[in-house]
Design goal:
heterodimer, A: about 250 residues, mainly alpha, 2 domains, 10 helices, about 70% helix, flat, B: about 350 residues, two-stranded antiparallel ribbon, elongated, membrane (chain B), transport (chain B), transmembrane (chain B)
């Protein structure tokens, strides 16, 4: 922990990408992901173009490649699955380096790897250039249900507090010589979870009362007015538009 | 366990997204009843709790460890609607702020991990607590069964979605067996820790456990004159009708989703999986889809010649059906809330008419 109020993924900066209003960036990234998923897997070159587009965004936003690569670890479980596909897949087999692999499995492994990687990189870029709070304000501007946005707001605000409480309980357990080794130790873990729930819930009650005493009526005041000019929208739309042009080309070519 | 982009095709991703949105709309209304007016701050803290508890690893067997999904735990602790909202918010935050789980797969992730686990877990929990005499000892047992059932069911729903719109060629029955088998074990772990957690909360603050409301004996005040008055301070137990309603709504939505999406697949050319299965003779025992005769399938094959266009139109029609049905159910529920005591079926007729 110890990250303070900024988030692990967020990298402060002052570039064109950082300055774009969040409610322009959110739909842009979502549209990009949909276009990538809808691209036929045979169009290798299209995925190359997508990767170049993302690289361009990363360059403009000054997000270093090392940062991106480190955050891509999140993908690993599905990389393992994708590697297994050609081996367990069905259909005609092809010989690659002396291994009998399923052709269909190879195709889908490539499909999942390419699309998942592009999606993860796009999400990382979004999270790296948008402050979490601003992202939620953007979601609110996009008319997401108030309650949902507020739940996410409170969750983000208190997440580190709750995680810290959990860490303190773990330190307390371990300083008394406890390590969970097998199923018989489950009750201890479960009691921690129960205590954590009670603490979270009671904190929620206190937070709610404190908010009420400050005039909370169920909606949060928006102080900084987020406005997007047509130019902002056009800038944000350039990424999905370029991707869509590529996808349309790949549909007509294949 | 978060599904990334590219795992499911675009049609199923969008269909699941529409389903998840409809489910969340229903839950947003329901959650207001469960947490009174405190929805946002309370649910936010509960979501943070679920996020934290998902990081809590526990040993399963032979050196492996698992972590909680938390759907059933949240449903029993704070009620099913709030539980779905909290888990969904956890997934949204993980998707947007941690890049965990694809943005196009958000609908699928929310459907499987938030809606299915919470609704199935809560339905099983309510069925058990209704069937046996209510006592405090029953609650953890019912929670155990609910959680243990919800995890393999979620795995099977994943397999089903994968069969409809997955992008990898795997034999469905073997995947279902493998997923089901592994998740029965994971479900046992989930059930055990859910039951233990709930019993530890019950021991300290029984009033906080939503699933145990109405268990305590009523407080009776006896005056010196011999008169007695009952104090009804505690909120009433969740009514059986409300406990079953999520199950009914969820079942209806799933049916409609399948009607929309499966018929589209029954119609167009077999996808990779089906083709491969056909080549290898795997599907000899497989029956035709029950919905293969729907108008959509005719539409996809006969009406439009270009295959891609046909798939597109059928896919969009499937999504439209899902959205329309989700909206209709949502309105039915809302109208019944407002007018009170109206029959659900009667209400639904009025809206579709």
């Amino acid at each position: 922990m110890g990250a303070g109020h900024t988030h692990q993924l967020y990298r402060p900066g002052d570039t064109v990408v950082h300055r774009l209003p969040p409610h322009c960036k959110l739909p842009a990234v979502a549209a990009f992901a949909v276009v990538v998923v809808a691209t036929p897997r045979e169009a290798f070159w299209a995925f190359g173009v997508y990767a170049l587009l993302l690289a361009a965004v990363a360059a403009v936003a000054r997000v270093p490649a090392r940062f991106l690569l480190r955050r891509m670890v999140i993908e690993v479980p599905f990389v393992v699955f994708a590697v297994a596909l050609p081996i367990i897949g069905l259909g005609e087999r092809v010989e690659v380096l002396g291994l009998s692999l399923s052709a269909e499995g190879l195709w889908s492994a490539w499909n999942i790897l390419a699309k998942a990687t592009l999606g993860v990189v796009a999400s990382i870029l979004l999270a790296a250039t948008t402050e979490p709070r601003a992202m939620l304000l953007g979601a609110q501007r996009l008319r997401l249900p108030q309650t949902l946005v507020q739940i996410a707001m409170f969750m983000l605000r208190y997440m580190d507090v709750i995680l810290d409480e959990m860490r303190r309980m773990r330190v307390a357990r371990e300083s008394r010589g406890f390590t969970a080794r097998d199923v018989r130790h489950l009750p201890v873990i479960a009691k921690s979870a129960g205590a954590l729930f009670i603490r979270s819930y009671e904190r929620g009650e206190r937070v709610h009362l404190a908010m009420l005493s400050r005039g909370y009526t169920g909606s949060m005041p928006v102080i900084d007015d987020l406005r997007a000019t047509a130019r902002n929208w056009a800038t944000a739309a350039s990424l999905p538009a370029a991707a869509l042009a590529t996808a349309v080309l790949s549909w007509s070519v294949s | 366990m978060h599904v990334p982009d590219g795992f499911f095709n675009a049609a199923v991703s969008l269909g699941a997204g529409a389903f998840a949105a409809a489910g969340l709309a229903v839950c947003l209304r329901g959650a207001r009843r469960e947490l009174d007016d405190r929805t946002a701050p309370m649910a936010g803290l509960v979501a943070a709790f679920i996020f934290a508890v998902q990081m809590l690893n526990f040993p399963v067997a032979a050196g492996t460890s698992g972590h909680l999904l938390g759907g059933t735990l949240a449903a029993v602790l704070v009620g099913p609607y709030t539980a779905v909202l909290c888990v969904a918010v956890v997934l949204l935050v993980q998707g947007f702020f941690f890049a965990d789980g694809g943005l196009t797969a958000l609908g699928i992730n929310i459907t499987i991990m938030a809606i299915v686990t919470a609704v199935v877990g809560w339905a099983v929990f309510r069925l058990i607590t209704r069937a046996v005499p209510r006592s405090r000892a029953v609650i953890p047992v019912a929670a155990f069964v609910g959680a243990a059932v919800s995890v393999p069911v979620a795995a099977l729903v994943f397999t089903l979605l994968f069969w409809i719109g997955g992008t990898a060629p795997i034999d469905v029955t073997s995947v279902a067996l493998a997923m089901g088998g592994v998740h029965v074990l994971i479900g046992l772990g989930e059930g055990l820790i859910t039951a233990l957690t709930i019993s530890s909360v019950l021991a300290v603050r029984p009033d906080l456990v939503y699933g145990a409301r109405g268990l305590r004996a009523k407080l009776v005040l006896r005056t010196a004159g011999g008169g007695t008055t009952e104090v009804t301070g505690e909120p009433a137990a969740p009514s059986p009708a409300r406990g079953l309603r999520p199950l009914l709504i969820g079942g209806a939505l799933v049916t409609v989703l399948l009607a929309g999406v499966v018929s589209f697949y029954a119609s167009s050319s077999p996808d990779g999986l089906e083709r491969v299965a056909g080549d290898k003779g795997f599907n000899a025992g497989e029956q035709d889809h029950a919905l293969g005769d729907s108008p959509l399938s005719d539409y996809g094959v006969k009406g439009v010649q270009d295959e891609r266009l046909a798939v597109g139109i059928a896919g969009i029609a499937g999504v439209a059906i899902t959205v329309a049905a989700g909206g209709a159910i949502f309105y039915a529920v809302r109208r019944r809330d407002r007018q009170g005591g109206l029959e659900g079926a009667h209400d639904g007729e009025k809206i579709t008419a």
